[in-house]
Write a structure and sequence with these properties.
single chain; alpha/beta; Glutathione S-transferase Yfyf (Class Pi), Chain A, domain 2; Rossmann fold; 2 domains; four-stranded parallel beta sheet; 48% helix
Length: 302
């Protein structure tokens, strides 16, 4: 199984809502001669169904893993939620023979069998482990100077550690090191590892618009608190890894500003966008016009 070839699992949110993440990730990864193989028959990772229908979550995740096994390739994900679900199910089925047999009973109806011979990695794992910080630093043609940024890891990329096994969820450094490789200055801020609120927002979207847009909405409160801390820290941009977290801080930032009568204007960049810009790609290459909070002013000043 080639280490430099991955089956790309895009999940549901990125192709439909956050194309800029996919665009920048493809450009960055392929610049390091990592081949991405398309996965046209993938289905939902199963995360939205757990714990409502645990067995269905297991089967949906296992089907994606079987597709990778059929091609004898490991999977690279962009979404931390998808990554967490696929890694969790992969590890669990490999270790629990009884559960594996039960899931294979369902899979047999569509001509599939989970064998446990593939692995799942998130984009930042591929960058940090397969490519390495030295190669990333060497690829930077336009290093950032005096660009003060902070990171939002999100809930799923590092937790639970016993199932994910990436970095230390209480003292994370992997994204900090990747950010600093671009020359940008990494800033810590209060409640850095807290949730963005996106997990609560589904119920909010079903409420009346006037109610959902108000300051009583818990998801907006959580995101607003993070934006307040970021502003206090003097952050010029926030770097994310997750499509849902990105939408919470970028797409909903103007809504939060209106609801709380505050102004933040903090651009939100996917990490591969930050890296791609440092590597010499132009904003036009990366579809930065998709962002709700326009990053062009701060990037122009740099």
């Amino acid at each position: 199984m080639s280490k430099s070839t991955y089956l790309l699992y895009l999940g549901c949110a990125i192709p439909s809502r956050v194309l800029s993440y996919e665009i920048s990730a493809r450009k960055v990864i392929e610049s390091f001669d990592v081949e991405l193989v398309e996965m046209p028959e993938f289905n939902c990772c199963g995360l939205p169904l757990d714990p409502i229908s645990h067995d269905m979550m297991l089967v949906l995740a296992a089907q994606n893993l079987c597709l990778a096994e059929q091609q004898d390739l490991n999977i690279m994900t962009l979404c931390p939620g998808c990554n967490g679900t696929l890694r969790k199910v992969n590890k669990t089925l490999k270790e629990d023979e009884g559960l594996k047999e039960r899931v294979n009973g369902y899979l047999s109806k569509v001509g599939m069998e989970f064998k446990g011979k593939t692995e799942v990695k998130h984009l930042i794992q591929v960058l940090a482990e397969d490519i390495g910080l030295k190669k990333i630093k060497d690829s930077v043609q336009k290093p950032f100077k005096n660009f003060k940024v902070a990171a939002h890891y999100g809930c799923h990329i590092l937790r639970p550690y016993e199932l994910i096994g990436i970095d230390d969820p209480e003292n994370a450094t992997i994204l900090k090191e990747l950010i600093e490789a671009t020359g940008a200055k990494y800033l810590n801020y209060e409640n850095e590892m807290e949730c963005c609120g996106a997990t609560i927002i589904i119920s909010g979207e079903r409420a009346a618009a006037s109610e959902w847009l108000g300051k009583d909405n818990i998801s907006l409160q959580l995101a607003r608190d993070k934006l307040v801390h970021l502003k206090e820290a003097g952050v010029q941009a926030l770097i994310t890894l997750c499509p849902s977290c990105y939408r919470m801080y970028d797409f909903n930032q103007p809504i939060i500003e209106r609801a709380f009568n505050e102004s933040f204007k903090i651009p939100v960049l996917h990490y591969p966008e930050l890296l791609a810009l440092a590597m010499g790609f132009s904003p036009d290459d990366l579809a930065l016009n998709e962002h709700r909070v326009n990053p062009s002013e701060i990037l122009g000043s740099l």
